[in-house]
Amino acid sequence: MLWSSSSPARNSKRSAVSQLMLAPNNQTNAVFDKEVPMKKLFSLAAVAALSVGQMAAAHAVDFTVAVGQTDESTMTYRLGAQFDFGTSWFQTSVGRLTGYWDAGYTYWEGDDSSSNHSVSLAPVFVYEFAGESVKPYVEAGIGVAAFENTEVEGNRLGSSFQFEDRIGAGLRFAGGHEVGIRAIHYSNAGIKKPNDGIESYALHYRMAF
């Protein structure tokens, strides 16, 4: 039997679709207003780590520790795992282009009501200059991050979801160790207001394994 245009099932589907289409923006964007519980935050971190691990299973894993500060003088402490792309481009006598996946956890220091936690995942492209025992490099990348809550020391992020933009520079030593500086900016790109954004400027040390 064919469905008629007045079928209860079809009308029910149309009603549901109509309600969704007519829902106000503040309802359809409600997901961006919610803070991310700690359990969900670390579940996201676990999923990201597994995904990166599968993509880079054949490559070495390095670990990074970093200490930094924001414009508001908030201290930041970051732990990260890096998975090299395992390839390079445009190799010349000057240097080469390469990169890695970076999975990170950051603690944003503050008082009991303003401290925060975030996890992030980003592909990072690195231009490494040629050298013997020391190789200077510059890097840049754009990734994604999730914050436990939407405020860091008065900066209103608007949503737990953020884009992570970074630039950095440093030195790579024989044996794979590395020291460098980074500037990382977080913003939701206007997905949800307010969108104050926040930056962290950090020193880091990378250990090769």
Descriptors for this entry?
alpha+beta; disordered N terminus; elongated; Porin; 4 helices; 209 residues; single chain
The largest sheet is: 8 strands, antiparallel, barrel
CATH fold-level label: Porin
- Kindly state the number of beta strands: 10
What is the helix content? Answer: 10-25%
Instruction: Measure the end-to-end span.
Output: 66 Å
Measured by DSSP, the beta-strand proportion falls in: over 45%
What is the approximate shape? Answer: elongated
CATH architecture: Beta Barrel
Number of helices: 4
CATH class, named Mainly Beta
Q: Order of strands across the widest beta sheet?
A: 1-2-3-4-5-8-9-10
Instruction: Please provide the ordered H/E string of secondary-structure elements.
Output: HHHHEEEEEEEEEE
Q: Overall pLDDT, averaged?
A: 81
Describe this structure in words.
- The chain has four helices and ten strands.
- It has one domain: Porin (Beta Barrel).
- With 209 residues, the chain is α+β, with helices and mostly antiparallel strands.
- The strands form two sheets. Strands 1-2-3-4-5-8-9-10 form an eight-stranded antiparallel barrel. It has a two-stranded antiparallel ribbon with strand order 6-7.
- This is NAD-dependent aldehyde dehydrogenase.
- It comes from Stutzerimonas stutzeri (strain A1501) (Pseudomonas stutzeri).
- InterPro entries: Lipid-A_deacylase-rel, OMP/PagP_B-barrel.
Strand and helix map with partners:
Layout: H1 8-22, H2 25-28, H3 30-33, H4 38-55, E1 61-70, E2 75-84, E3 95-108, E4 116-129, E5 134-147, E6 151-152, E7 155-156, E8 161-173, E9 178-187, E10 198-207
Antiparallel strand pairs: 1-2, 1-10, 2-3, 3-4, 4-5, 5-8, 6-7, 8-9, 9-10
